[in-house]
Amino acid sequence: MSDHVVLEEVAAGNWRACAALEVVDEQEEFVAPVAYYLALCAYGDSPWRPLAVRVRDEVVGFVMWGRDPADGSFWIGGLVIDRRHQRRGYGREVVRQLLERAAAEGYRSAALSYDPRNTVARALYAGLGFEETGEVEDSETVARRALG
Ligand SMILES: CC(C)(COP(=O)(O)OP(=O)(O)OC[C@H]1O[C@@H](n2cnc3c(N)ncnc32)[C@H](O)[C@@H]1OP(=O)(O)O)[C@@H](O)C(=O)NCCC(=O)NCCS
Predict the structure, then answer these.
(1) Closest residue by Cα to residue 144 from 107, 91, 92
(2) Residue segments in the chain with a per-residue pLDDT below the cut of 50
(3) Which of 39, 60, 65, 115 is most exposed, with the fewest beta carbons within 10 Å of its own?
(4) What pLDDT score does 2 carry?
């Protein structure tokens, strides 16, 4: 992939672009608005950390991550690639970079969840080695993979 995907902290200069990200109509039931995820990161009791996904000078997506206090696994959540930028490999590159970062930081396993009807997400994550465990979290299918 030639486009350089950069994960950057959410701050004063890019949070509006994150909140303005849009998915296609049929995907809206699978994710919350990014503004909700930003509020969750700021005020929720789970330790989620937000990241903007930038390509060149444009914010094209959003993702958040957190350490599961129960088992120390690296969770990925809230992945959104704006509808105008989908199917260019950005979603896969975001997850790939996060897994690389997590492994370098010593995490032993990664986890995420998705709506069972979200076939695009399932295909994306399965292609990156995530396997469904049979766990269900907030009505979502949990998938995990080892790191390192
Ligand atoms: C899921 C999502 C993040 C994927 O981002 P993306 O940048 O479009 O994905 P990529 O271009 O990296 O594609 C990676 C793989 O995902 C799958 N995929 C992506 N878009 C797809 C589509 N419209 N139909 C079928 N498969 C698709 C394919 O397996 C694809 O691999 P391929 O191109 O080699 O076939 C994006 O579709 C999105 O934001 N969806 C709405 C929000 C959402 O559902 N987030 C996940 C919550 S768990």
Answers:
(1) 107
(2) none
(3) 39
(4) 53
